[in-house]
Amino acid sequence: MTFALIDDQALSAVLRNKPPRALRRRNLATTGHWYVRLCQAALSSSGHAGVLSGPFEHLPEVQRERAVGLLLELPPEIELLSLRQLAPDVGRLRVNRQLNILSVEALAAAKALDAEVFLSAPSPALEAALTLEGCGWRRLE
C-alpha cells in the first residue's frame, strides 16, 4: 500500500473536506508532530487566525464542529505511526541530518511507510533530506 504523508496544513484541508486534488483517492498518513501542531492551532481560542487555525475559524459552525470532531478523533483511514515505532529511526536519522524533530519524524515516517511526502510550504532542509534518503516529495498548490 502506497501512502501520501501529509503535513498539518494538508491534514487540515482533508479534515475540513477540502482535500487538495493531488490527495484524492490516496492512502493518507501524517506524523505525530504535524497532528499535534494542527490540534494546538485548531483548538486554541486565541482569536488570531493563523495559517492553521484560520481555516477552522472561518468555517460555518456545523462544518467547524464536524471538522473539529474529526480532528479530535482522527479517522482510522489516516495512518499515524507511533513514536514507539519511529523513535529508533528518528534517533539514527538525527545523527546524520541537521533537521528539527518535526522534520526528522517526517523523514522517518516517509521511510517506514515508503510514502511520498506532500508539503504545503517550502521546507528546504526536509526536502533535501528526503531526496538524499530516496523518498519522493512534492509541494501542494
The top level CATH class name: Alpha Beta
Q: Which word captures the global form?
A: globular
- Report helical residue fraction: 40-55%
Identify the quaternary structure here.
Answer: single chain
Tell me how many strands there are.
5
Main pleated sheet: 5 strands, parallel
What name does CATH use for the topology?
Rossmann fold
Question: Which terms summarize this structure?
Answer:
single chain, Rossmann fold, 51% helix, 5 strands, alpha/beta
Short description:
With 141 residues, the chain is an alpha/beta fold.
Overview of the molecule:
- The protein contains 7 helices and 5 strands.
- Strand 1, helix 1 (8-15) and strand 2 (27-30) form a beta-alpha-beta unit.
- The chain has helices at 8-15, 32-43, 54-57, 61-72, 83-96, 101-113, 124-132; strands at residues 3-6, 27-30, 78-80, 116-119, 137-139.
- By secondary structure, the chain is α/β, with parallel strands linked by helices.
- The chain starts with a strand and ends with a strand.
- It is globular.
- A 5-stranded parallel β-sheet has the order 3-2-1-4-5.
- The chain has a single domain, classed as 3-Layer(aba) Sandwich (Rossmann fold), CATH 3.40.50.
- Helix content is 51%, strand content 13%.
What secondary-structure arrangement, pairings included, does this model have?
Layout: E1 3-6, H1 8-15, E2 27-30, H2 32-43, H3 54-57, H4 61-72, E3 78-80, H5 83-96, H6 101-113, E4 116-119, H7 124-132, E5 137-139
Helix pairs in contact: 1-2, 5-6, 6-7
